[in-house]
Amino acid sequence: MDSYNSDPFGVANSMFMEFAPFVLIAISVWFIIAFLFQKHMIKMATKAHTLKRKDNMRVYNLVENLCMSKGMKMPKVNVIETDALNAFASGITENSYTVTLTQGIMDKLEDDELEGVIAHELMHIRNKDVRLLIISIIFVGIISFIIQVAFRSVLYGGRGSNKKTDGRLMLIVLAVSLLAYLFTVMFKFALSRKREYMADAGAAEMTKKPLALASALRKISGNSKIEGIPCKDVEQMYIDNTQKNFLGGLGGLFATHPPIEKRIETLEQF
Question: What pTM was computed for the model?
C-alpha cells in the first residue's frame, strides 16, 4: 500500500507489463483473424450474395469493361438485397477485392450513372483505399483494446490503496486514453474524407462523365440508408454515409464522408 502511494504509476505500469504478453497474443490473433477473414465477415454482416454474369449481364459487363479499360483484374461483385441506394468496395488483397452494390442502386440508376458509381468503387481499390481503411478499422479496435487493458490495470492495481490517489491516476489515464483514441479516430475519418474526393475525381477521369456520377450522387442522397447491418464499421466504406449532425461544424471532424452536396459541386466543375 505504501509503495503504491509513493509510486502509483509504477504499480500500474508493473501490472500492465505483467499482462503485456497476453495483450500482444490477443492483438495478434485479432489482427490475423480480421486480415484473413474480413471478406467473409463483411459478406455475412451485409447478407450479400455473389453476382455472376448470368445473374445480371448489364452490371457484370459494366464492371468488366471498366476494369479492362484500366488493365485491372476484375474484383468479385456482390449484391445486397435492399431498395436502398448504396455501394462500397472492400478487400485487402487482390483475391479479396470486392465491389458490393445494392439491388436498389442497380435498379434505379441509368447505365452512365451506375458506371460512375462502379468506377468510384474501383478507384478505391486501385488507390488501395480499401486496404488502408480496413487496416485502420482494425488498428482503431486494437488501440481501444489496449486502452481498456491500461485502464483496468490502474483500476484493479489500486484496490485497497489511497482512494484520492486512485481517483487522480484513473482520471489521468482516462484523459490520456480518450485523447489518444479521439486523435486516432479523427485521423481515420479525415483520411476517409480525402479518399472520397480522390475516388470521385478518379471515377470522373475513368468514365469521362463527371456529370453522370454527380447525377448518381443526387439520386443516392437521402436514399442510402441500409437497414439491418450490425457492423457500423462497414458503413465507413459506403459511397454515401451521411449522418445526422448534432454538433455543427465540430461534427464534421467525425464524419466519414464529405458532404454529398460538396462532392456534387466539385464534380460539376470538371
Answer: 0.74
